[in-house]
Amino acid sequence: MARSQEAVSKNMSKIRGKDTSIELRLRKALWAKGYRYRKNYKHLPGSPDIALTKYKIAIFCDSEFFHGKDWEVLRLRLEKGKNPEYWLKKIERNRNRDWETDRKLLFLGWTVIHFWGKDILKHTEECVKVVEEAIWDAKMGEGAVFGEDG
Predict the structure, then answer these.
(1) Cα gap 70→116, rounded to integer Å
(2) Which of 5, 22, 123, 146 is surrounded by the fewest CB atoms within 10 Å?
(3) Do 145 and 112 contact (CB within 8 A), yes or no?
(4) How far is CA 6 from each of CA 22, 51, 84, 122, rounded to the nearest angstrom?
(5) How far apart, in whole angstroms, are the C-alpha atoms of residue 37 and residue 29?
(6) SS3 of residue 21 by DSSP
């Protein structure tokens, strides 16, 4: 079912870059467990949504659409949709920027974790457990990239 340009525009205008519902959900869960963090930490590449500076853990809460979850499937869908050149270019740029940001953070000795929005909403406790495992690893002196399947 096609949506009017006004409906699409109204929907897009409500999309925010910070303090999104997925970020708030994960932040509240981490805070409740006693973990303290910086939000949208501008002192690091990519301004991670959540930065556990004590443990050098950078967390990104990624929306499935804008960060290209299941990219091969999404790409085919976008190629058939409206304005495919714009959307394909935009999401490819986002994915490349995410990859480059991860590399920079890893080089700086940070552990990088990406969560998809739906995983945060449906499996918040499992996401917290992933963060807790990364904290344990940081305490033991290890670092890695978790949660990204793209």
Answers:
(1) 11
(2) 5
(3) yes
(4) 26, 37, 19, 30
(5) 12
(6) helix
* Per-residue pLDDT of the chain in tens (150 residues, 90 and over written 9): 566 667 655 655 555 667 899 999 999 999 999 999 999 999 999 999 999 999 999 999 999 999 999 999 999 999 999 889 999 999 999 999 999 999 999 999 999 999 999 999 999 999 999 999 999 998 887 545 555 544
Q: Is the dihedral of CA 96, 99, 104, 110 positive or negative?
A: positive
Evaluate whether 122 touches 27 at the Cβ level (below 8 Å).
no
Q: Mutual orientation of helices 124-140 and 21-32 as an angle, nearest 10°?
A: 60
Q: Which residue has the tokens 């990088």?
A: 112
Q: How far apart are CA 46 and CA 5, in angstroms?
A: 31
| pTM to 2 decimal places | 0.82
- In 14-140, where does DSSP find H-type helix? 21-32, 71-80, 84-107, 117-122, 124-140
Secondary structure class of 59 (helix, strand, coil) = strand
